[in-house]
Design a protein that fits this description.
Radius of gyration: 19 Å
Shape: globular
CATH topology of the largest domain: Nucleotidyltransferase, domain 5
Number of strands: 7
Order of helices and strands: HHHEEEEHEHHEHE
Number of domains: 2
Number of helices: 7
Strand content: 15-25%
Largest sheet: 5 strands, mixed
CATH class of the largest domain: Alpha Beta
CATH architecture of the largest domain: 2-Layer Sandwich
Length: 244
């Protein structure tokens, strides 16, 4: 596909692929090989790898779109710049019940240290979430866990953080749960994540803050976005052209 027409985004805004969508591919071995070669990509891992056992034509079309996006962005790279700030900032998001077959949600986070993107993730949640707040809170817990590990690493490198880590979430209920000391009946099944995040908030390591969806950069790891929004968020992650 070296001569293919590039795509502006890796997936379209309606990319909800079920396991039995369309006819089987003519060459399933070639699909598996191609999907395996893209398994290092965060978004690819949660969308295409789960379709390996019985690939269908829509899966192959979506995979080819991803390759077309890569073809058009081969000269893009992650820019790291010198910064006097040592603040950890995390953006977390979840696409609630995004998988049409299992109804499991996709979690994503982006961790910035001093304005530089240093860690990111996109993966299916291991269990089905009963509400969007639950899915978002699991994403918050994943982001807090990663940021806590980075905080500990910085301390071991004799560069401890002087301020609390900021965790941005666009779900008001999830933000409220991070500080609410009451264990409600409807949240008992996420009790471990609740206690983990609340403990970090209580000791002052973390602050969970609401962010509008227009500034939720982690959206890029959980769902298909319109071209203009995708380009804006990609730029906010310090992904720039000029690395060929």
């Amino acid at each position: 596909m070296t001569d293919c027409n590039p795509c502006s985004t890796p997936v379209d805004t309606q990319a909800k692929l079920s396991e039995d969508a369309g006819p089987p591919v003519a060459a399933p071995t070639a699909y598996r090989s191609l999907a395996g070669r893209t398994s290092h990509m965060q978004f690819s891992r949660s969308v295409f790898i789960c379709m390996i056992h019985d690939p269908r034509e829509p899966h192959l079309t979506a995979l080819k779109r991803l390759l077309r996006y890569l073809q058009g962005t081969m000269d893009y790279g992650l820019l790291l710049h010198r910064s006097s700030s040592a603040k950890l900032v995390v953006y977390t998001d979840a696409d609630w019940a995004g998988c049409p077959d299992t109804r499991r949600s996709t979690s994503g986070y982006a961790v910035f240290l001093g304005g530089n993107l240093v860690s990111w993730s996109s993966k299916r949640q291991p269990v089905v979430s009963r509400s969007s707040a639950e899915a978002e809170y699991r994403a918050v817990a994943n982001g807090v866990a990663e940021a806590s590990w980075l905080r500990q690493l910085l301390a071991e490198l004799h560069s401890p953080l002087a301020k609390s880590m900021l965790v941005y979430c666009d779900n008001v209920s999830a933000v409220y749960l991070s500080t609410n000391p009451v264990q409600h009946q409807r949240t008992k099944h996420v009790e471990i994540d609740l206690h983990f995040v609340r403990e970090r908030v209580a000791i002052g390591d973390v602050r969970v803050v609401h962010v509008p969806i227009t500034s939720q950069f982690a959206d890029i790891f959980t769902k298909g976005l319109p071209s203009a929004v995708f380009s804006e968020f990609r730029s906010s992650l310090n992904i720039t052209r000029g690395y060929s």
